[in-house]
Specification:
Pathway: Protein modification; protein glycosylation. The protein is of the alpha/beta class. The chain has 14 helices and 13 strands. Helix 9 (335-338) links the parallel strand 11 and strand 12 (345-346).
Length: 432
Amino acid sequence: VKYMEIKEKYEKKDERPLIASQPSPSQQQQHRCKQATGWAVAMFHHRKVVSGVIASLVLCTVYVIVIMGYGPSAQDRRFYEILGNKFSFQSTPTEVLPHNISDYKKILLWNDFFGRRDYFLGTGHSPFVSLGCEYSACYVTYNREVFQSTELDALVWHIRSTDKTFPSTRAPHTRYVFFLEEAPVNQDVDLGPYNDVFNYTMTYRRDSDIFAPYGEFERLTKPIEEPNIGTGAGENIAAGKTKMAAWFVSNCNPQSGRDILVQQLQKYITVDVYGSCGPLSCPRNDNQACLRMLQSDYKFYFSFENSLCQDYVTEKYFSIVNSNVLPVVYGMAPYRELSPPHSYISVRDFPTVKKLADYLIYLANNHTAYNEYFKWRSHYSLLSRSKSWCRLCEKLHTDRQEKSYDIHSWYEKNKCVDQATALGDAFFAPDS
């Protein structure tokens, strides 16, 4: 949920924080005081003890009163605090390395991922253990001081970070990893200058070196034994729901034309639109309350992607599929290959918008048929999106292939289509 909040703020190109990488005023003050103290110590070595101590105190006082007083205002300082809390800019931790660190593959997260320096993964060796990775002998950090650049086995680089720098030195064996989870139509960065820089791709596309989807399912080795959903002996998920469909959206005119699709569906069914593109709202600071409302009131949630690109399916689907509301998906991802059977409804499975609406009405009025869409949970579980880090760790241990990418050509070849191509010219035609 926290990830969804942060990512949503980045969906619009003009909403990226401009000073995210700057230290807070308090950190600047501490640094300056340390400098002053260091100067005092230097004076001590020149047998100017009293002068040094006095100078240290004076300098610290000047920085606190003058610099802080005439520098950032109280409002500015509050902004720093909010920014730090909102985007979780972690302070550089003190790391205790395993005694056998030489046996580990060392991974450096060079820049941030939507404000998170730890990529929502964590740091150290423990993430690979908690994820149950088959190859777990890896150590990940965002602290650039832990390892020399020549010691690194992999450097992960997120193209959408405001930090576009690279290390000053690079060892031949270090794999540079191109990390991105956005579709080409959402990018405004020229990738041409980065050709022949990266050795691995780590994206939502299935042809990436490291497949990194927003979510993954795993078939259970032993089905969960529970009463059949919707039979009267178990839970009837449809019971008590009084509303048809909900859609939460902030990007009103995306490439996918999902807004047009919703407008056409509203001719046949009631769709409640929340967010900046609709009349309804739900507290942005309480996503759990919004989710509870969705699950208790609505039968369907529209998980409509903003881009119709090969393999592109985001948190709009994975964040809702495990809840008690049925997702209706719209995108070019191979949902049948990525999801358990009978766990969603795909817009593209219907010849016309009216046929789709008719089926939703049928399910809304038939609790038994509706509840069938939740039985997959007895046979599958939704995994953490971070499982992709297991694949990276494994590849670092097993792959010996030397290669680099024309990253511009590789990324731009991703097939994105328009709405007419995705749905067909007759999809919005009148249907008797």
